[in-house]
Each structure stands twice: as C-alpha cells, then as structure tokens.
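Changelog-adjacent note: as of this version, every example in the card shows the full chain rather than a window. The one below runs 597 residues end to end.
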Amino acid sequence: MSGRGFPALRANEYRDAWCGQVLADRVDFELRLAGWIHRRRDHGGLVFVDLRDRTGLVQLVFDPDESGAAFELSHQLRAEDVISVAGRVVRRAPETVNPELPTGEFELRVDEAERLGGAATPPFEIEAYSGEVGEEMRLRYRYLDLRRERMREAIELRHGVAKAIRDFLGGEGFLEIETPMLSRSTPEGARDFLVPSRREPGSFYALPQSPQLFKQLLMVAGFERYFQIVRCFRDEDQRADRQPDFTQLDLEMSFVGVEDVLDLNERLLAAVFEAVGGPALELPLPRLPYDETLTRYGTDRPDLRFGLELVELTDLVAETEFKVFRRTIEGGGVVKGLNAGAREVPRSVLDGLIERAQELGAKGLVWAFREGEGWRSPTAKFLSAEELSALNERLGAEEGALLLVVADRAEVANSVLAQLRLELGERFGLVDPGAEAFCWITEWPMFGWNEDERRWDPHHHPFTAPAEGFDPERPGEARALAYDLVWNGQELGGGSIRISDPELQQRVLETIGIGAEEARDRFGFLLEALRYGAPPHGGIAYGLDRWVQRLLHADSIRDTIAFPKAASGADPLTGAPAPVGEAQLRELGLALRSPGR
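Full-length structure tokens:
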C-alpha cells in the first residue's frame, strides 16, 4: 500500500513524512522518516536498507561519502531495528527501479540516522514469512505477526469496514449507542461467561452473548434506529469461524417489517462493499425459504456458487424390495441423492466416500454410475429396472454420471449429503474462486424439537416474533419472522422481527418451558418494558469478523482479529486463562474444587 491519501504528518524529532509518501512530489526535498528495518543489503561501498512503516516501504541509501556517522551505524543495523533517518529524496537510476513498490522509483540518500530501538532476532522471519510457521507461534508473538503485510492489510480492511458501516447507518438516521458489558445471565442459546460479584458474594454478572434485550429496550425507549459495533462473549466450543470473544454489528429498527429490514441491510452491504472494494451486488438478493433450502441443499447455509442439488427420491422407492431403503422409509426416514455428473472415479475414492458418509453420521452410502437405463453399482441388483429408470430420470443422470444416495432420518440424510456436496464441489473444481453468492434464508421454523431434553427450543432466540396464526398447541407448525444472510455457504448474520406484545411473549416462553415466575426472574425487566408501549421492531446481528474473513478470503476469523484466541480458546500471548491467587478467590467468596465433585 502507498502512503498517498494518508494525512500529512506534523513534523517532530522523529519524522515529518510517512515512508509510503516518498513519491514524485517529494523529489529533491529533505525528509525525515522513521520505522522498522525490513531488510538490509551491503553492496560493498553502499548499504541499502528498506525502511517500513504502516504505509509501505522506501529504500534508504547509506553512502560513505555522504552519510558520515550514519554510514558507520548502517553496518550495525539488524532487521526489525527501529530507526529515524534524514536525507534527500532522489530518483533511482532506471535500471534499479522496483516496479513492485509504489515508492520503487525513489530513494532517500541518508545523511543522518539514529537507532531508536534495537531488535532481538525474531522467532520467525517477518519479511519472508511462509505458512510453515505454526499458528501457535504466530499467536504467541502476535505483535511480530501483525508486522506482516497480510495482517496489516486485514486490520486496515477491518477498520475500513467499520468506518463504512458507521457512515452508512449514520446517514440512515441510526444512533450508535453502547449497552452494558456486565448484566445478568439470560437464555440466548450458548453458555455465558460469568463474572463473580465481590460486593454480593454468590451472585454473578454475565458477559453479553449479544445486546439482544437492551436493543429491544432502546426501541421501547423511542430511539427507533440503533446500531452498535460491540464485543460479545459465548462460552462455546471453538472452530474456524468462532471465538469466545468476538465482534458484532448489531442494529435494530422500529415500525418495520421483514422487507424493510432486508432492504436496508442489502443497501448497507452494497455501500460497505463499494467503500472497501468488495464484490458488486445485484439487489435485491435471492430469498430462499428454509424448507426449500433444506430440500435442495441439505443445510440452512447453502453455497450457491455451484449446483449438485439434493434430490428427493423417497416416493420412487417406497414399495421397493431393497430392504435398506424399505426399512428406512417405513421407519419414517427418507431416501435422497445427488448427481455428481459424469466422472471417472476409482474404487478407492468411492470407498472413501462411504467412510466419509459414515463419519458424518450416515449408516451407509449407495454409489452408482448410470449405464444405459440402469446402474453400475453393488446396489443395482436389488432394484427393479423400473425403479432404476425412475431414479435416473429424477436425478437427471446422464451416461456415466456418479450418483450418491443416502437412506436415513431426514436430518441425517440432509446433513451428510450437504457436506458431501461441498467436498465434491471442491474435489471436482466446481467452485469458481472468483464467484460470490449471497442469499437470504427466510420463513424459518419457530421451534425445533430437542430430543435429548424432550422440549421445544427456539430456532433463533425466544424473542423472535412468530408469523400470523401462531398456535402454542402446535409449536412444530409455527413459522418465525426470521432471516439469515448467507455468503458462499457461511452465515454472515441473522435476525428477526421481535415480539412486541407482552402476552404473546409469555406464551412463547411457556412453549419452550419457561413459566411466568421464571420469566419474571430472568428477564422481567423486558416483559415489564413491553407493557409501556412497545412499537413493532426488528433487526439483525452480523459477525463483523466473518465479514472481513470473507472479504480477505481467509481460512479463519483469527486472521482478521488483532489479538485472537487459539482454536483451543487459550491465548498463547498472555497465557489466559490462568489461575488466580487464593486472596482474590476469598475476596470474591469463591473456593475451587476438583472437576466432577
């Protein structure tokens, strides 16, 4: 990146310009620069140093005939030393121009230099960083890792995204309002991080999983349009796109319906992408009902950059003599498949697909290649010619097409085929790396049945408004005014229209097993607030880390966060989490005991 566009520096004893600003308009000017030594090269009579700051690199030249004492210092400098230099900007000789750098036509002829801070040998090379350095090492020395260009660009992009969000929402009449970091534990879908109270031993604050209840209170308070770029905390298992502490863009609007929220958010997304160089969007974005999404893709986070859609086959084999299919259907299960296209695939790969399906939870996997009107498959002999023909037609199978079929409970068949679809798309090169696909998932079920706990759980959260006709006696049929935004198969954010009627809110809470007394105890403040004139309202929350991850095409949100936790949830830099002393525990009225006791 170039320093062009950076504000002019106020001159001080260390510098009066950014390294990236050493461009044509500075030729023949005397400048003072400061930064880190990126690399040093001794060419006999001359010493060349690439100096780095946030804005880029510039070449320094130490000449024994011009640099005086600075030339002597140049022989003592090491990579990552911090220096301040002064000298005259000149054009490089044509044969020495570096076209890879914005400053590559210019250099600073040094006549003064001071080492401001020496550097020990880094644990890994910063200039020539390669992926061979493990993430644990990178996080342990994150302050060095952040010096690399890719990490600097990630942090700068994150800043640009946040600025563009604030600019757009400010122009739409939103107010940025902070909400508390210390509150009480409420049921929002994940475990809370608890903070013991010293003043009230035995009582605890909870760090917010989201500002959900407070943003609803702001709507009751009449602010009508609120947003916040806020830290949230969830004590849950880690994965590539999760952190125990993460950043959300949270927003809420009054007097709106689903289409109002989606329209504003599509324009927000387009404005942010235009500001930071993201993909161009064609609005409105596609909307896919939840049930259709599961039918076609097996997941509520579909990657729409390629086909291989799932196909329902249950009705075609309902009377089959093939016992595996027949028993599954009689037990309430389904038979689903996908057509992976005409492929030459060795038996070892097919065996691997069976193993993978079983790892994902299926009892097995049927594979077949279309041959004429039938199949080449160990399963073909158990199916009639009519069944094979019907299956080929339903799957749209051309000659030589690889067909994969799973017979199991609907949720298992969907999840297994959904994952196999992604892996086959990657294996066969079906995903255009330059493609971007967005969609809204709408018309969500209000509740899902929790078999382990024998209860109904909200699909989003218990403050999501149901569509018209909500019958608490038939919760499995209820639909929610909810929506998720999906980008290339990753959930970017989700939200809903909220419940603004206190009586309806109580009925929903009772449906998920929270009675009136428990409701008053856990979030009576919200139920009470709804009785003082609550407008219809709704909003959305996005994972800001995921926005930046997708824009960077990074593998993990950890590559978008200045100081993230490792995949284990630990912090290699600070050593957190860490024990505390007995005195602190006593002050909080706490005592430790062995796990399991």
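Structural remarks: The first strand starts at residue 30 and ends at 43.
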